[in-house]
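Narrative summary of target 7.
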Amino acid sequence: MIYWDSSAILKLYVTEPDSRYFVDLAGEKDVQIRSSAILSVEALSALSRKEQAGELRHGAVSLYQELARDVEAGWIVLIPYGPDIVAQAQRVLLMTSKAKTARVLRSLDLIHLASALECNAKTLVTADTRLREIATLAGLKVLP
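Modeled conformation, tokenized:
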């Protein structure tokens, strides 16, 4: 199973230099994408920031509605945030605290990583450098 964090999913809706890779990886909506339920808030926040910075051709709300339709259609499956994710996040924190070099863990990255592990993902798709490092440490294959 492949898990996508918000940074990767947003590349499916916002054209950026590396978006083509993510679009190709996602295919033609024939394979489900799994992500955390926090995607909704993260996506709307990031899209709003990009709109305010003048980086979007289409408005943030329009792009967010497109993403919401993909969730509703079942192409993007959201992993609920709950006690199981919290417990998994605690295990990840303990594991990374034992690593030889200190890792900076942001809370949303930790939720994404815990969600990926909790849904038994073998691969994590992310554009986030820090999350890539921690996911590798947790034993996940990371793309790209």
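The domain at 2-143 is CATH 3.40.50.1010 (Rossmann fold).
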